[in-house]
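Anyone up for a design puzzle?
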């Protein structure tokens, strides 16, 4: 047991032949590598989450776009029906205006004889 303790003592008191700057440089290098790996892992997690969020947003926007397209098609159909009905009403209105003009131009003098008029009045 004493041999082990003296061996450890020699290791602790032994002269280091490696320069201190090399040890410090190695320590900094390994710290940098470790923090870079952590940063890389965090970046990958964030990128994955952003990708999933973008995919969900794309799906939601596609659903909204589909509903809007259905509504636009429906409104276009209704607009076409309205235009057809308006054209039919324009034709009816024009026919009625023509009929009014004909009636205004016609001789509307409805004259009856005096005896017929008196009979209608019960005289």
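Challenge accepted. My sequence:
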């Amino acid at each position: 047991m004493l041999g082990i303790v003296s061996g450890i003592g020699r290791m602790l008191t032994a002269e280091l032949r490696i320069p201190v700057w090399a040890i410090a440089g190695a320590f900094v290098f390994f710290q940098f590598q470790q923090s870079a790996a952590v940063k890389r892992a965090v970046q990958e997690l964030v990128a994955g989450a952003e990708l999933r969020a973008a995919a969900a947003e794309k799906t939601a926007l596609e659903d909204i776009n589909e509903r809007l397209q259905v509504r636009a098609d429906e409104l276009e159909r209704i607009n076409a029906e309205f235009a057809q009905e308006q054209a039919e009403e324009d034709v009816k209105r024009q026919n009625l205006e023509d009929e009014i003009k004909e009636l205004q131009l016609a001789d509307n003098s409805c004259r009856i004889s005096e005896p017929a008029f008196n009979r209608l009045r019960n005289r």
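A detail worth pointing out: The chain has a mean pLDDT of 83.
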